[in-house]
Design goal:
The complex is a heterodimer of chains A (491) and B (131). Chain A is α+β, with helices and mostly antiparallel strands and 491 residues long. Chain A has helices at residues 2-13, 39-42, 47-50, 55-60, 63-79, 123-145, 164-170, 174-177, 189-205, 252-302, 306-337, 349-359, 361-366, 385-401, 435-438, 459-468, and strands at 18-24, 30-35, 83-91, 95-107, 113-121, 149-154, 159-162, 209-217, 224-234, 243-250, 345-348, 370-374, 380-383, 410-418, 421-428, 473-479, 483-490. The chains are: A alpha+beta (491), B alpha/beta (131). Chain A binds chain B through residues 280, 284, 287-288, 290-292, 294-296, 298-299, 302, 312, 315, 318-319, 322, 448-451, 455, and chain B through 13-16, 18-19, 22-23, 26, 37-38, 40, 67-68, 96-97, 119-121, 123.
Chain lengths: 491, 131
């Protein structure tokens, strides 16, 4: 007996913590009939001090945990189930410590219960655990403040980790998403399969993937979206399967700005081309007129008869008028191109239209033009009044000028507002124009196509500038012998 | 002096055509002068002339930038007509807008055009042509 006790004592000294026997009697008193030397560390009491009375140990239990510890002992006493508890003690020397106790109860003949068990100090483990938990909380907090959608998915596409931005995107909480797959969030089967394949590919090859641009339509809002995503192989703690970390950025705004910018660059490029063309043409025309004048003048000196001189003089007048006209055109165009002051006014389309109709009344009556107005009386838009008048005048007078000789001219004017944009169309049943042949030159300067004596080839050039300098767009649709439609979108 | 006696001017600039006509007359560079305002008018007239056995001009001064049918289009159409007559017809392209299209045409159809002259045309140019 003694030798076995010695062996137990020796063995127990090698174990951190305390090996003990605890006995509770039916009257509620308790004691530690045996406790190893470790009790000096665990409770800062001696085995002798608690051999007959456990009070000293019970006093050491943290006041906040005392009830729970006693209740758990009480349970084990009644049920004879194993006792297990994590609790704090307040020690005279070491202060507050975390302990973990485990013991097996055994009822004996006198009605008391004896537990054989082991208690060890888990303070350090608890602290480490606390740090881990805190780190995890901080990590999640950082993830949740990111505007990017962040996911960790395993090989089967199950979500292991997700941040707030990603959950918000699907209208769920992060908790609701864990363990689910793309298809569970209503992503269509085909896309979900594609995503899973790419996830698996990253895991299998161990190579990160960068998707520069993905375009999709948001099913909830119906709006276009662009995303950028990067997928990297990822070892996720707590998952034995290999995972992928996915970071998705919403680049819709950037993309929209980029597209707008490209459109603007396109328009500016076009305008630049036209300006270049314009400079070219103006110099050409000025040179032609000037050349003609000097040619006629040199002839004038040598002319002998009065009659011939008079004829020549007539041509000189024509040439000088041509020069004048060119300079006038030049002025008009420069005025449009440099109209820095974008004077805007709320305009009633009906009033402007009425004004233009009055200007053109002679042509309208002379050619028996039928005008169909298809817009609401109260339609208004913010625009430069002079521009709007000029645009209307040009399009309407063009429609009359290029009427078909074999039928009554019918000109339809449509206008409406949609999504804050103002749309405006002028269609005629006139001669039409071969767009395949002339389409690129239609809005060019001094381009005339029908051999019409009144054609100056400057109207559409100016119209286009007046539309585009205000951020609008003009398009043309035409069929030879059927008619022409000009479509204008104003901002 | 003059070896070219039948001259044709195709140009939509009436003042220019009038001036050129005067210069040709004054310097005896041509006996008869025909004026057209664009390629189509000229082509229609030439076609009729060939059909009725009339002689085509010896010299054509052709503008490029014209409405309805421009100089290039005229040149393309005129080739088939040229084949029908045995006469040597010199075509001078006279234009102030000799752009890339002109440069290209020069390379590809050098044989069809005698020379390219830029506007404004001087009396000396016309004298050289007529020689």
């Amino acid at each position: 007996m003694d030798s076995s006790k010695k062996l137990l004592t020796k063995l127990s000294e090698q174990v951190p913590g305390v090996i003990y026997q605890y006995q509770q009697f039916s009257d509620g008193t308790s004691c530690f009939p045996f406790s190893s030397e470790g009790i000096r560390e665990i409770y800062e009491v001696t085995p002798e001090e608690v051999k007959h009375d456990a009070t000293k140990v019970i006093e050491r239990i943290h006041p906040d945990d005392k009830d729970e510890v006693l209740a758990s002992i009480g349970n084990s006493y009644k049920s004879l189930n194993d006792w297990e508890c994590e609790y704090r003690v307040v020690l005279p020397e070491k202060g507050v410590r975390w302990l973990k106790g485990q013991a097996r109860p055994e009822k004996i003949s006198d009605g008391s219960v004896i537990w054989h068990g082991y208690i060890n100090d888990i303070t350090e483990k608890k602290e480490a655990n606390k740090v881990t938990l805190e780190l995890k909380r901080q990590f999640q907090a950082i993830l949740d403040t990111m505007p990017n959608q962040i996911f960790v998915k395993d090989y089967d596409g199950h979500i292991r980790l997700v941040n707030k931005a990603a959950a918000d995107y699907f209208g769920l909480t992060p908790e609701e998403m864990i363990g689910k797959t793309d298809e569970d969030f209503g992503i269509d089967k085909k896309s979900a399969e594609k995503f899973l394949e790419s996830t698996r590919n990253v895991i299998e090859t161990g190579t990160p993937k960068f998707i520069k641009e993905g375009h999709s339509i948001n099913e909830k809002t119906g709006k276009e979206e662009w995303h950028q995503a990067s997928k990297v192989p990822f070892e996720y703690f707590g998952s034995d399967k290999r995972c992928v970390l996915i970071v998705v950025s919403d680049i819709t705004l950037r993309k929209q700005i980029e597209m707008e910018l490209n459109e603007t660059i396109g328009i500016i490029g076009e305008q630049n081309n036209r300006l270049l063309n314009f400079a070219h043409i103006v110099s050409h025309n000025l040179r032609n007129h000037a050349g003609n004048i000097s040619m006629l003048l040199s002839l004038y000196d040598e002319e002998e008869t009065e009659e011939e001189k008079e004829e020549l003089f007539g041509y000189l007048v024509t040439a000088s008028e041509g020069l004048n006209e060119t300079i006038k055109d030049l002025n008009e165009i420069v005025a449009t191109q440099t109209a820095v002051e974008k004077y805007l006014k709320k305009l009633s389309l009906k009033n402007t239209y009425k004004k233009i109709k009055e200007i053109l009344i002679t042509e309208i009556n002379a050619n028996n033009v039928k005008l169909i107005e298809n817009f609401q009386d109260n339609l208004t838009l913010e625009y430069n009044p002079a521009y709007l008048e000029s645009i209307l005048l040009n399009l309407l007078s063009n429609a009359i000028k290029y009427r078909h000789p074999e039928r009554q001219p019918v000109i339809k004017v449509d206008a409406y507002k949609n999504n804050g944009q103002f749309y405006f169309e002028v269609s005629d049943n006139g001669m039409g124009i071969d767009l395949k042949k002339h389409g690129d030159k239609l809005f060019g300067m001094y381009k005339t196509f029908h051999g019409n004596a009144n054609a100056k080839g400057i109207g559409l050039f100016i119209t286009k500038n007046q539309v585009e300098s205000m951020g609008g767009k003009i398009e043309v649709d035409s069929q030879v012998n059927k008619g022409t439609t000009f479509k204008i979108k104003l901002k | 002096m003059s070896t070219k006696n039948f001259v044709c001017i195709i140009d939509d600039d009436k003042v220019y055509s009038y001036g050129i006509k005067k210069i040709i007359r004054r310097h005896n560079l041509g006996d008869s002068i025909l004026l057209f305002e664009n390629g189509k008018e000229a082509l229609q007239a030439f076609t009729l002339m060939v059909e009725s056995g009339e002689e085509l001009p010896d010299l054509i001064l052709l503008d490029i930038d014209m409405p309805v049918m421009n100089g290039w289009e005229f040149l393309a159409e005129f080739e088939s007509l040229r084949k029908k007559v045995e006469k040597k017809i010199d075509i001078y392209v006279i234009s102030s807008t000799l752009d890339q299209a002109g440069e290209l045409y020069k390379l590809e159809h050098a044989g069809n055009v005698a020379d390219f002259i830029s506007k404004p045309v001087k009396t000396e140019d016309l004298k050289k042509i007529a020689d």
